[in-house]
Structures are given as C-alpha cells and as structure tokens.
Amino acid sequence: MGPLSEEEKAGLIIDYAIDREGVYGLEQLNIEKAVLWTFGKRIDHTQLFNESFVNRLHHRMYGQIWKWGGTYRTSERNIGIEFYRIPQQLKVLLDDALYWYEHQTYDPVELAIRFKHRLVSIHCYPNGNGRHSRLMADLIVEKLYGKKVFSWGGSSLVTDDEKRSIYINALRKADNGDFIDLIAFALT
After folding, report:
1. pTM, rounded to two decimals
2. Is the dihedral of CA 98, 103, 105, 109 positive or negative?
C-alpha cells in the first residue's frame, strides 16, 4: 500500500500509523464501530435521508483518524462534482431518495444501489466515499426494508484488485444508467 503523502499525513489526527496499511487497519476498526453504532437503532427514512445523518455516519467512520471525517471536501478531485456544489447536490439526492422511498419508485435493492451510486458520484468527502456509500446502501436495505446487507463482492475492495476492477467497471456502467452489474456485484 505504501507510505502516506505529506498532505495525507497533515490530515491525520493520530500519529502512529505512518503508512497506508496501518491507516487502513485503523479505518476498518472505526468503520466497524460505526456499524455497531447503527445496531439496535431504529432509523426511519426521514432520519436516513437526512444530511446530518449522512455526515454523522461518515464522521463515525473516519473522524477518530482524519481531521476531515464527516466534513465536505474543499478542493477539486478527478472524480465527483465541483466541491462548492456538494451541499446542494446532496440535498437533491436526499430529496429524490425520500420520494423514491415514499412512492415505491424502485424495489428496495435498486433504490439502495441508485442512492449509493449517486452519493459516491457526488464524492462529498476527501476520502472514504466508496465505503461510506456502501454502508449507506446497507442501512437502506436493512433499516428501511428489513433485508440482509449487501455482500459487495465478498471481499475487501481495497485489497482485492480483481474485485475492485469488477466494482469500478460496474460503477462506470451505472454512470451511463445501467445498474444491472452494480446490483449483481452488491448481491454476490
């Protein structure tokens, strides 16, 4: 995985994980804590499709490691929308998702995957957008529909290059409105 850049190091709260592998391990521990935070919580659609909840979940996933946990990015990236449009576009997505849910526009799996795809496409945060959007999709199917969470290919998308490639190709197809492969990947 290699060493962190100086810019990445400046964003760390902790100072003892000096390479990507160490940071990744700490991130995984905090993501597990974020998942545990959701266990036993009654989360309805008005809470789940709420900007405060979306940001709070990201902060719980990354806020003990990174200064920017739960905070929108403030610079341009090679993916995602322009950073100054994030709050407005996230609100549009949340309003759309609330409508989809209340009007049963999509079946539960497709709603969750479409939400996940739009969220990761906005690319709200400096990092962790993929893992955050997948957890949001899991919460949608679990909390709103009582279904099992997705398997997302059954392995780590950070360490399994083959699975990551399949996932990225499925995302690219979804960029063009074809969600079949992304849904299939989530369910495998």
Report:
1. 0.96
2. positive
Q: Are 25 and 125 in contact (CB under 8 A)?
A: no
- SS3 (DSSP) at 58: helix
Nearest to 130 by CA among 53, 40, 24, 50: 24
What is residue 76's DSSP assignment?
-
How far apart, in whole angstroms, are the C-alpha atoms of residue 97 and residue 9? 36
What are the beta bridge partners of residue 3?
19
User: What is the per-residue pLDDT across 53-107, written as a single tens digit (0 to 9) for each?
Assistant: 999 999 999 999 999 999 999 999 999 999 999 999 999 999 999 999 999 999 9
Judged on CB neighbours under 10 Å (0-12, 13-18, 19+), 23 is buried
Domain membership of residue 180 (yes or no) is no
Q: How far is CA 128 from CA 83, 96, 178, in A?
A: 16, 23, 24
What is the amino acid identity at position 100? W
Q: What angle do CA 38, 179, 53 make, to 5 degrees?
A: 25
Q: What is the DSSP letter of 80?
A: S
- Show the domain range for 25: 6-150
In this structure, are residues 93 and 115 in contact, taking their beta carbons and an 8 Å threshold? yes
Query: Which pair of tokens denotes residue 19?
Result: 């390479």
Q: Is residue 119 part of a domain?
A: yes
How many domains would you assign to the chain?
Answer: 1
* Amino acid at site 42: R
